[in-house]
Amino acid sequence: MPDLADLFRRDPDDEPDLIALDGTDRFMLDEAPHVHGDAVRAPGAVVVVDDVRGFLTLGLIALHGATNVRVVQDSLVGQRALQANAGTFGLRGFHHPDSFEDAFRDARLVLLRLTKSHDRLDEIARAVARFAAPDVVLLSGGRTKFMTLSQNDVLRRSFGDVVASRGRAKSRLLVAQDPLTAAANRAALTSPWPKQVHLDELGITIAAHGGVFAGASLDLGTRVLIEAMDAAVPTARVAVDLGSGNGVIATEIARRRPAIRVIATDVSSAAVRSTRMTADLNGVGDRVVTVRSDAGDELDEGSAQLVLCNPPFHADTTVSTDAAEAMFRNAATILQSGGELWCVWNSHLRYRPMLEKVVGPTRQVVRTDRFTVTASRRP
After folding, report:
1. Are 217 and 205 in contact (CB under 8 A)?
2. Which of 232, 194, 224 is nearest to 377 (CA)?
3. Distances (CA, A) of 149 to 49, 157, 171
């Protein structure tokens, strides 16, 4: 069986084909016993948030003896990676709580991999300050080139003491302590998450948890798709919203078509919860089913006549079209023969050849100065 400790000794630059701990994971695991040594070995005292491949969680268990580790992973991809790597290394001793309250209640050490979303950081920090033990330490880390001083400011909304480490291996850590109580900071009890905003132009209320694409607002590309989608397969009985985000597309098509059933799916737990709340707030929750999946990979073959999609072209801080291509391939599987994928994309991305190849004959529906809406028909 592979030895997890070997991952610390590998240099990804020398052995690029081997999966190895990145510099941020190593830094956080090295520092965890120093920032709160008593908590690391205390059963159930440690929480890991947004573990990219699961190595933070498994490292705490294998190298530091942590037990009953609570894990909060927004991305289903990260959750699957943790499960797979746990099987590879034969490690157990972690679980996924159902809510932030269950995840952070009485926690004493929280390890958080930073993303580019300040909203995600704010929601997590407020939850830790509200539910964790008074001596909790929030240890967050990321790549130095993607970190900003404003992250310190976000943490100071919920913690009295925030200190940045020196850089190491192109990474940096933020150590937050002294969670603010309601007496010192009303935010401890009046968290704005999930946000709710009424959108006058559509007459709906949008709900969004921290880190969800576009937050509680209407993305410009989504607006273009919504304006065009009334003409999309008018006889469709089942529509799928791939990458539902805050749920505005799923909610709008359900409102406009009282007989349609909508399946809204996203890889993000925060997005699925946001979609659920948006649909419920606008009276269509009974016809919108929410599913957490990776680009719709768990939906049945031939289960819909219409797929709607505003695909991302960033993976956190990296520009990538991988997610879009996966969505297109899965849309082709989900659609019945004669069904259509209606997709909006930034015109400079030139997705049309890919759509033609992966889904089927593709026509342009709308083109603005920034966005293109296409309809791809499944043969």
Report:
1. no
2. 232
3. 21, 13, 14
106-119 pLDDT, tens digit per residue, is 999 999 999 999 99
The Cα-based distances of 77 to 11, 15, 190, 315 in angstroms read 24, 24, 31, 12
Q: Does the structure show a pLDDT above 60 at 7?
A: no
Complete domains list, the chain, with CATH: 6-188 (3.40.50.150), 195-377 (3.40.50.150)
Q: For residue 1, what pLDDT is reported? A: 47
50: region left, alpha or beta (phi > 0 left; psi from -120 to 50 alpha): left
Look at the block and give the residue holding tokens 């300040």.
118
Q: How far apart are CA 128 and CA 218, in angstroms?
A: 29
Beta bridge partners of 139: 111, 175
| Six token digits for residue 148 | 């900003």
Would you state the pLDDT for residue 312?
86
Peptide bond into 312 cis (omega under 30): no
pLDDT digit string, tens, across residues 217-264? 999 999 999 999 999 999 999 999 999 999 999 999 999 999 999 999
Computed over every residue of the chain, the mean pLDDT equals 91
Which residues, listed in sequence order, are joined to residue 138 by a DSSP beta bridge? 110, 176
Assess contact for 137 and 109: CB atoms under 8 A: yes
Rounded Cα–Cα distance for residues 309 and 369 (Å): 19
- Provide the CA 2 distance to its chain's centre, in angstroms: 29
